[in-house]
Specification:
2 domains; Immunoglobulin-like; mainly beta; 393 residues; binds ligand MTE; binds molybdenum atom; Sulfite Oxidase, Chain A, domain 2; 5-stranded antiparallel beta sheet
C-alpha cells in the first residue's frame, strides 16, 4: 500500500541514541540527560525528547505521499511533497516543550497520572518547511482569515498513528484558523529538522510545528488537514492537555469546563546540576534553559543559593556572538534562551532558578499551588540540592 502506514505493534521502531532516558518503552517516550540540553543552543536531533502515543508510522514511497486538505473550504486539494517544496522555505528556530515536562516533580507532591518526565521534555530545533499560511492559500484560504465563507474557524491536523487513547484511531489536534493563516505566527508544515530530513521519530515525512504552543499541538506524520467550525473533538484536545485547578480530582472532573491548553507559560530549569549534587566548596556553574510561550521573550533569570531569599541575575544567550535582547528582531522569538551564572558555594544548600518573561509573568514558587491531576505545566521554581563534600586525598 502506498503512502503512510501505521503499524499496530512495535517491531519496526527506529534506532535511538543509547543515552536517552526511557520513560516508557511502548509507546516510546524518552528524554536526554539534562546536561545535553545546555551543551548547545540547537538541540541535536538524537538528543531531542521523543513523545509518542503509538508505534512510529512508516513511509514506503515519498512520491506517493500527499496531505489531503479538506473541510469547510471552497477548493479541497491533495498536496504532495513536490507542491510543498515549491513554496517558499522557511527555517524557524522554535522550542518544543511537552506539557508534561517536569511531571515527575509534581507527582512527588501528590500523585498525578501520565508519563513521568524529568526536566528534559523540551528541545530547541531549526524547523525547515512551508508556512501553513502559504499552504492554505493553495486551497483558497487567504492570509489573515479568521473564518471561511463556509464557516471554518479552526484547522485540524490529523495523523495516522494508532493511539489507544483514540481507541486505535490517529492522533489529532487543532489551532484557530486566525493563527494558521497568520504568516507571523510561523506555523510550519516542516520537512526538515536542523537542516536534515525529518526523521521517523519526529514526524517523517511531514509534521506541524506550532511555535510557542505546547508540543501536543505539533502533530507528527501529517495525513490530512481539516478546516472545521469548532475546535478538534479528539481525545488530546478534549480529555487531556487541559489545565485544572488543584481542587479537581478524578472523581469530580468535568473536562468540558476547561479549554485545551495552547501557549505554554514561562519556564526554566537548571541543567548543569542534577537534583542532588556533591560539590567542592567554591565556584559552581549554574546553567540551564528558559522559555515562554506565545513568542514572549525572557526578560530575566534569577538564581538564588539560599533557597530563594537572595537572588542574582544570570546572563542570557541564544546564538554565539549576539547578545540576547528579549523582543529584539535579531532574537529568535520562538526559541529558548540559555542562561548561566557562577555562584560561590561554601556550605550545603538549595540552588533555585526562576525566569521572568517579556510580559513580566514569573514562575510560581511552589508546585502545590499549580498541582493538577494530569501533572501538566509544572513551571514551579526549579530547585536543586548541593551538598558540599571535601575531597579525600
Ligand atoms: N501524530 C502524533 N503527533 C504528536 C504526538 C503523537 O503521539 N502523535 N505527540 C505530541 C506531543 S504530546 C508532543 S510533546 C510532541 C513531541 O514531539 P517530538 O517527539 O518530536 O519531540 O509531538 C506531538 N505530536
Ligand atoms: Mo506532549
Amino acid at each position: 500500500m502506498p503512502g503512510l502506514r501505521a503499524p499496530s505493534e512495535y517491531s519496526r521502531e527506529p534506532p535511538r541514541h543509547p543515552s536517552l532516558i526511557v520513560n516508557s518503552k511502548e509507546p516510546f517516550n524518552a528524554e536526554p540527560p539534562r546536561s545535553a540540553l545546555v551543551s548547545s543552543y540547537v538541540t541535536p536531533v538524537d538528543m531531542f525528547y521523543k513523545r509518542n502515543h503509538g508505534p512510529i508510522p512508516l513511509l514506503d514511497d515519498l512520491d506517493s505521499y500527499y496531505v489531503t486538505i479538506h473541510g469547510l473550504i471552497e477548493c479541497p486539494k491533495k498536496i504532495s511533497m513536490r507542491d510543498l517544496w515549491a513554496l517558499p522555505k522557511y527555517n524557524v528556530t522554535a522550542t518544543l516543550q511537552c506539557a508534561g515536562n517536569r511531571r515527575t516533580a509534581m507527582s512527588k507532591v501528590r500523585k498525578v497520572r501520565g508519563v513521568g518526565w524529568g526536566v528534559s521534555a523540551i528541545g530547541n530545533a531549526v524547523w525547515g518547511g512551508a508556512k501553513l499560511a502559504d499552504v492554505l492559500e493553495l486551497v483558497g484560504v487567504p492570509k489573515l482569515t479568521s473564518g471561511t465563507t463556509l464557516g471554518g474557524k479552526h484547522v485540524e491536523f490529523v495523523s495516522i498513528d494508532k493511539c489507544k487513547e483514540e481507541n486505535g484511531g490517529p492522533y489529532k489536534a487543532s489551532i484557530p484558523l486566525s493563527q494558521a493563516t497568520n504568516p507571523e505566527a510561523d506555523v510550519l508544515l516542516a520537512y526538515e529538522m536542523n537542516g536534515e530530513t525529518l526523521n521517523r521519530d519526529h514526524g517523517y515525512p511531514l509534521r506541524v510545528v506550532v511555535p510557542g504552543v505546547i508540543g501536543a499541538r505539533s502533530v507528527k506524520w501529517l495525513d490530512s488537514i481539516n478546516v472545521i467550525a469548532e475546535e478538534c473533538q479528539g481525545f488530546f484536545m478534549q480529555r487531556d492537555y487541559k489545565m485544572f485547578p488543584p481542587s479537581v480530582d478524578w472523581d469530580n472532573i468535568d473536562w468540558a469546563t476547561r479549554k485545551p491548553q495552547m501557549d505554554f507559560p514561562v519556564q526554566c530549569a537548571i541543567c548543569s546540576l542534577d537534583d542532588v549534587n556533591t560539590v567542592q566548596p567554591g565556584k559552581v556553574k549554574v546553567s540551564g534553559y528558559a522559555a515562554s510561550g506565545g513568542g514572549r521573550g525572557i526578560e530575566r533569570v534569577d538564581i538564588s543559593i539560599d533557597g530563594g531569599k537572595n537572588w542574582v541575575e544570570a546572563s542570557r544567550y541564544q546564538k554565539d556572538g549576539f547578545p540576547y535582547v528579549s523582543s529584539d528582531i535579531c532574537s529568535d522569538k520562538w526559541a529558548w534562551v540559555l542562561f548561566e551564572a557562577t555562584v560561590d558555594i561554601s556550605h550545603s544548600t538549595e540552588i533555585v532558578a526562576k525566569a521572568v518573561d517579556a510580559a513580566a509573568n514569573v514562575q510560581p514558587e511552589n508546585v502545590e499551588t499549580i498541582w493538577n491531576l494530569r501533572g501538566i505545566l509544572n513551571t514551579s521554581w526549579h530547585r536543586v540540592q548541593v551538598r558540599v563534600g571535601h575531597s579525600k586525598m
